[in-house]
Amino acid sequence: MQELIPINVLIGDRTYRVKIDPKDEEPVRKTLKIINDKIIEFKTQFSGKDMQDYIAMVLLWYATQLPALDEQSTPGKDIVEALRKMEDQLDKAL
Fold this sequence. Notes:
Elements: E1 5-11, E2 14-20, H1 25-45, H2 51-72, H3 75-93
Antiparallel strand pairs: 1-2
């Protein structure tokens, strides 16, 4: 079992210290970048009372994006299709 590593996480205007698996560091940092970029985007588009308003908007946006992303990104289907094409080519060659 790998040791968890501590990282500083910045969301909005607050920093949090969390421990994560080292293999999860890159996806966590990419997700944080998306979240913070969206916060900035929402701050410029909408007037809010405080950072909590923007974080709530980003949370709602992110939660509604996940099901849409799952439907769009189906690498399993792509792999199956590629394998079928290869199988057809092998059948023709034999």
